[in-house]
Fold this protein.
Amino acid sequence: MSVLELKDVSISHVQGLEKNTVVHDVNVSIKAGECFGLVGPSGCGKSTLLWVLAGLNPHWSGGIRLLDQPLTPGKVFSGELRRRVQMVFQDPYASLHPKHRLRRALSEPLKLLGYQDIDDRLSEGFKLVGLSENMIDRYPHQLSGGQRQRVAIIRALLLEPKLLLLDEPTSALDMSVQAEILNLLNELKAKRDLTMIMVSHDPEVVDYMCDHAVTMKAGRIDKETFYD
């Protein structure tokens, strides 16, 4: 079963009346339970593609079928699709408010969705990623970079997604912490039966994590690779 199908997808950046197409004619199929890699140098279009899949850029054309649901260009995600697709950013501060304690930042989306067992879910989430529960009431600046990225992963998993989007999730970390986060993601993928799409400029990270990958160059797919 395919979680994602892209057919002749092109993506634009729009500023005022100007429209600049930066990704051209992408065709991709991703199976359920797969870790799929988008690899290539900065500016090649891989993060631009990921942002469309997260519902953050509606300026695209072509065909996208995501989690067995056809998407419509120009429309943002809503309802169940918004919950089932979650993203972990390169910089954890992108998803953690610097002036809010972690408990508040992580609780708010659960409250909006009507969850009642929020404290239990937070405790279980911290245990799942190997963090102490006493960190729940800290501010983001009181954690190390690796700890903040683990919290960002908790934030994404609390909504029980089917598809996890990873935008350079370890590139800002030192090598030892990077390995810990990659191993954690592999463990979570198996435990939660997740499908993952990982953006990286590092072919070694993609080789370690992914079942299948494409290399992008100047906004187009340059090469497709399957890993044993």
Remarks:
- The mean pLDDT is 91.
- The first helix runs from residue 46 to 53.
